[in-house]
Design brief:
Helices cover 71% and strands 0% of the residues. By secondary structure, it is mostly helical.
Length: 107
């Protein structure tokens, strides 16, 4: 029996058993805007990372920059604020360099 028949039989069985009844976003249109806005050479890698629950480095850096900005704003002492500001500047520089390399097609 060809693989396609095996797959179809399993899908039919799963539907009959109700295994697809409570899936997240069921009945909602699929938003492919993010997928198609990603450069072609990165789509597969980003899709795999997203499915695994991992974010690309630039996304992690953006999150860290946002957290550091909040921490700088909430810092009570001058020393603490300066330490956080240095860390923020370092992360912003890393992010800028990474984005610049990506825009030039470097790795």
């Amino acid at each position: 029996m060809p693989f396609s028949h095996v797959a179809e039989n399993r899908i039919r069985h799963a539907i009959a058993e109700g295994e697809f009844d409570n899936l997240p976003n069921a009945g909602q249109p699929v938003d492919l805007q993010e997928y198609f806005s990603t450069p072609v050479e990165l789509r597969l890698a980003y899709s795999v990372l997203k499915s695994a629950g991992c974010a690309p480095l630039e996304v992690e850096l953006l999150k860290e920059v946002a957290q550091l900005k909040e921490a700088v704003a909430a810092a009570s002492g001058t020393c603490e604020r300066e330490r956080l500001q240095r860390a923020l500047t370092q992360r912003q520089t890393q992010l800028s360099l990474l984005l610049e390399r990506r825009s030039r097609g470097e790795k």
